[in-house]
Every structure is written in structure tokens, then in C-alpha cells.
């Protein structure tokens, strides 16, 4: 007796159903995508009992004639492709011709379709077999009803979850499709109750507002970037709002909703040094790549894709999100946001008066303290008063931008810098802002190997714990790159001869101690992570503090240098450096609206 036999079509269809239709949400997704491929502009979805008892999808697409309606229930029958060459760059959602036959094999299926208003066809099937065909009168389009899902596959039916769980999956699937196809009107009901009715939307932000409210849309930043042949667009959550609401993720590649943890991780990597540990942002991204560089035919449910060069795509996504986080619009706001992206730091034309060093005080802010007189730093000479400015290293010594308009600045409580903007009032936290400036400067030093430092008149003596001593030995080179000239003095004692950023209020000893304590707990961290932690710690301790009085020149220099950072809106601990109060919100508080 032969041990190998060809499976019957009924068994093969049920196996295919297990691959394509995992649960009611899978059937909903396949039926809605068929409607979209048919050119539908309005789709109505109704489910009962989480989709286990009934799924009905109605559309106003092109519809089908009788022969096509019958042929659509045959395996691998499709209007989307004709040859293997068509698989390269295929734009349709469904193309394998397995969805309808797979759903039909495990349900009672009814297809009503008409290619034009008037005469249509109704096809009745169950368990994969057609039971009846009738003529019906209906409008142009198609309605597919699948009842009693997995009625003939009790083993599969047992694995279905409760009504609420299955309904949540249907809702999530439909939400992703609605985000992806904003040009289509969707209506979704469950057990007769309307879940949402979404009109066609002009932008992704409009669709988000229709789904989750204007508040959710306001927490998101526009992402729009082109890197070579890769186009990344969408929305990313403002760092100051991360953790204040449910996290949502959405990803489409070439117009197809997919799951890809690598792309999402790349987008999250753009938030480095802007979020506290453990927080993950909401991300809604669309990625367009050349058709020949992505394979969409790698998953039965078309939920995954494979890239020819994944690293390039992930890098493009990370850069796009990071660029969005670097705009003024990424800052925190009080009240309704009316800000235009990139509106605060303006790079005007030649007819606009630009910031120029107008005095010796202003000029000094853009130069490091030389310390050339007797090779002794000014801060180390007993009895000498330091010349203005008190913080000569507010900005990098080289390549300081001179094309940033600086508005009149006012210091509040020796902690905040305030200025007026076209759209409202802006507050800058001087410590957080300077911390961001120094962090990016120190990261540049670590990457380029620069080591500017100020030699101390009297060396500092540090007595370390064993863990701190071990951390010092492991990171001696990095510390030297940042400007710490340190040598051993026997046992666990160190002599510090030079330190970075030697302004009068910089506590070099405390900074170095806390830096070593931080590194002691990160022995096994990746090299880049150690660089970031080291730069963040030193920047935090070297930055100006709340309560430090700043001159006008220092405030202007801090404003300019913050404008030149890549991520000006947040410090390295995830706190906001900039908070905006819009004029509408201010007028509302005073009763003027």
C-alpha cells in the first residue's frame, strides 16, 4: 500500500485556511483588502460575536460578473497577476488567490456582486463547495458574508479566544487598514453598535484625529524625509508626551501594512538621549522603497516583507525620525498647539539682520578661555574675578552658526529664559538647554577624538572605591578624550591635572566621581552606549544650573547654540528644554476667547 497520497481539495483548503485565516480578524483583513483592490471608495464592515458568527464586508468597487464570482472561489484564481514577473513590485494587497477559497472552506459564504447597478449574482457556498447560484438586484459592488467561521474545523475553533479578544483583534486590523488607506471611507460595527465611521481623510494626522481624537493627533510630529530612493513619512510621538497615553505603532511598506520589529526598533533608536529608560513612543510610519528592493511574497498573510538591504532602510527610518525630533515643533506645549514646524530658529535671507557679536562680551562667548597668560587659567588665580562671560563654553569653539535670529530674551527666577514668538510665549530651561548643547558637543569629541581641556593650577586628588578604580582603568581613554588628564597616584588614588569646560561653577571633582560611579555599573554595555552615558553624565555636571544668573550675552549664546543642536527640545534625561504657551491658550485663560 502506498504511504504517500495526494491530499483531497477539502483538506488542502483547510490547511490553506490555517495559514491565511488564523482568526476572524484575518478574514476581515483579507476581505477588506479584496474590496480595496476592487477600487472601493466606501467599505462597510459588520461583525457579530467578535467575527465568529458573522463577518460581512460591503464595498462600492468594480464588482464581478457571474463567471468571475464563481471562479473567485477556486484556489489561486486571481485578477492581480498573470506571470511570475508580476510579483516584482506588485501593488495589490491580495495576489495569491487563496483568501476567498480558504475562508469559504471553513465557513458558510455568500457572495453578492454586480459589475453595474441592476442585475447581479449571488453565490452560496459552504465548506468549500458551491451550493447555489442566483440572480439578484443590487447596486454596483460586492458584499461578502462569512458565517460560523471554523464550523467544520472544531480543533481550530477551540483555539479562538473570547468575543472581546477577537473583537479587539478585528478592531486593530481595521484600524491599521484605515490608517493605511486614508482615501477610503470606512464604517465598522460590532453586534449592531457602531465602532467608528471614518470619512476619507486628507492626511494621516486627520485620520488619527478621527480615530483617537484631536489630542492624540496633537501629540505627534510630522515625519517627512527622503534618503536616496527611500521615502519615509508619517507621524512620531513628541518625546515630552511619551508615556502619557497608550502606545500605538503602525508601519506600511510600499502601501502594504506589515509587521517589522527591526524597522520599529530603528525608529525608536532615534529617541536616544530624549527619553527615560523603559519608555517607548508611538510611531505611525510609511516607508516607500524601490519595488525591486523588497520582496512582498514571503508570508502567507502578506504581513511581512524582506528587504534586499535592510541596514539602509533602517538607517533611513532612524534618520527621518531623528530629523523630526530636531525641529522646534518637538518641544512641549501648554494648551492647544498652533505652532508651525521649525518655526523658532529661523534662517532668513540676507535682508534680515542676523545675530553678530556686537561687543567684547558677546565675542567672548564664542571663544574658549585661552589661559595663555602665565599658562594659568583665570579661575585658578586667587583673588582674581573672572571676566564676563562667566560661562565661556556655552557653545562649541568652532563652527558657531551666525544665521539664527535672536529675539529679546528675559531670565526668570535665574532658571528660565523667556522670549516672544509669533505663535506664543516660549520658555527655555537654562540647565536642560545647556546640558543638551554640551552632550552633543561631548559626543562629537568622543567620535572625532578631540580633547580640549583646561589645566588646573593645583591637581585634584581623588580617592576611589575599588569599583570606581576599575571603571577608571576601563575607560581611561574615553576620559582623556573628554579632556580629563588623570594619572594614578598609588592604590586607588588619582591625580587630576586637567578637566574639560573649566568655568567657575564647574565642579570637576564631583563630575568625575559621578561619572566613574555611572561607568562602574555599565561594564558590559556596548561601546556606543558607554559613550552616550559618559557624555550625558559629564554634560549634566558641567552645565549651568538653575539659580545661575546669566548675562544677556550668555543667554543669547545659549539660544544660538541650542538652535544648532540636533535635538534641541529635550535634554539627555528626557526632560523638556523648551515649553511653549500658545497665544490662543493664553487668551483663553484671560477670557479673551
Provide a quick synopsis of the model:
With 593 residues, the chain is of the alpha+beta class. 32% of the residues lie in helices and 23% in strands.
Set down the secondary structure blueprint.
Layout (H helix, E strand, L loop, with lengths): L8 H12 L3 H14 L4 E7 L5 E6 L6 H6 L27 H7 L2 E7 L3 E9 L2 E10 L2 E7 L6 H5 L4 H18 L4 E6 L2 E6 L5 H9 L1 H5 L1 E8 L2 E8 L11 E5 L2 E2 L3 H9 L13 E6 L5 E2 L10 E2 L2 H16 L6 E3 L25 H5 L45 E3 L3 E6 L2 E6 H19 L5 E10 L2 H9 L1 H6 L3 E4 L4 E7 L8 H13 L6 H16 L9 H12 L14 E5 H7 L4
Parallel strand pairs: 1-7, 11-13, 16-23
Antiparallel strand pairs: 1-2, 2-6, 3-4, 3-6, 4-5, 7-8, 9-10, 10-13, 11-12, 14-15, 17-18, 18-19, 19-23, 20-22, 21-22
Helix pairs in contact: 1-4, 2-6, 6-7, 9-10, 12-16, 12-17, 13-15, 15-16
Q: Which descriptors would you attach to this protein?
A:
five-stranded mixed β-sheet, 23% strand, Ribosomal Protein S8, Chain: A, domain 1, alpha+beta, elongated, eight-stranded mixed β-sheet, Ribosomal Protein S5, domain 2, 32% helix, Heat Shock Protein 90, single chain
